[in-house]
Amino acid sequence: MFYSLFMLRALAQADDAVDDCAQASLWALSDSELLASLDRAHVLAQRLAAVQLGLVRELDSRGLATAQGASSTATWLRERLRLTGRSARQLVQLASTIDAAPPAVRDALFSGAMSVEQGRVVAETIAALPLKAGPEVADKATQLLVDWADRFDPTVLSRLGERVLTHVAPALADEAELAALKRATERAEARRHVTLSEQQNGEVRLSGNLDTETASLLREAIDPLCAPAGEHDDRSPWSAASGRTGRGLPARATHRRTAGQRRRPAATRGNRFVGRAGQRRTRRHPGDRRTSHARCDPASRLRRWRAARGAGRQQSGPGRRTPASPLQRPVAPRAGAARRRLCLPWL
After folding, report:
1. Cα(294)–Cα(303) distance, rounded to whole angstroms?
2. What is the pLDDT of residues 147-189, one digit of tens each?
3. How far apart are the first and last CA of the chain?
4. Residues 122/105, Cβ–Cβ less than 8 Å
5. Cα separation of 147 and 323, whole Å?
6. 28, 31, 169, 304: most buried, per Cβ within 10 A?
């Protein structure tokens, strides 16, 4: 009874202290006071998180969630604390991990020497040590990781934890690495699978997980189909030059043109002959290129205009075909209007 009242009284005092902090004028703090307040608030938040994890672990060990009709502690926490299912499961798992950690890890958490994430990393690293290491090596590794927590974030601390035996027990480091490699290989072989899912748009989706050896075999089998070369290259010369496989799929070639190179030049795009309705679209004669406004004098414009009018009069008779002269070819109304605007701007 005394301990329960002490816990509730302490939490009430912490609640009042948070109210005082929330009502404080932050703009009145100096730069040094602002930085010190931020550091202190972070430490207190981590200490309160450690207290919360202890409460969750005690609640889970008593089975209060199942006694109240919930299927699990995570489900009960999701409903009571309005958390997501993933956050509730992570909270229960983290509380169990911290509870199984060495006493030095819990002391560092309650004192604010490390964050909750750092404590999780240290606890998982110590739990993964081989049994041959013994408690003495485990204590040395724990103390070393706790000291590193003052300088490194959880990600870097996790990478350092993989090599912690090299610092505290070099004789066991090589054996532990071989055992870890063997466990990783067995886990990869157990999880390997390949799934082919048919999509509604006529495609098939390929997904899965493979170990290194199986992936090498699969890559060796499909490489001749994806990028045929040598004796496996049964494509036509056109397909090989265009970088396409025999099935019309683009190969993994690095010599393909970019989007800018695939665009036709402006002169090529404009060098088209637009005929009348029903006529086949053909290219202009190489000598019949449009002359820019800057290089076309008025006399040349007038001669071109008269030649175009003469070609129109010759076509009026029955059975007349388009003259062979490139200057006398008929043009559509829009193309003719563009030519008149280009060569005779005063009309």
Report:
1. 17
2. 999 999 999 999 999 888 888 888 888 787 787 788 888 888 8
3. 106
4. yes
5. 95
6. 169
